[in-house]
Design a protein that fits this description.
Layout lengths: L1 H10 L2 E5 L5 H12 L3 E6 L7 H4 L4 E3 L4 H21 L11
Parallel strand pairs: 1-2, 2-3
Amino acid sequence: MVQSIWRSIQRAEIIVVDFSAQSVNVGIQLGWAMGVGKRVIFITQDEKIVPTDLRGMNLYLVYSESFFDMQRLVSEVTQQLRRCARRWPRCRTTATTL
């Protein structure tokens, strides 16, 4: 499993990290992604659980499970992915769930 996750991180151009589950594994995988220079989009349902070094920089999108909020989140993540594609043309559009 760990090798599969590592290969997915290596293949991805952009990583979307959701802090909502408060999983230690998410933190480890984020460290791997940042360590190899991946671009990262952070999302969460509760900004209090975002690591403090990221919280102060407002580098994350907050969402809830409501239908309208999920639509807003999809729109915001899509905008961020488009910005990335304009800046870095080799960004892929294939999504991988870890």
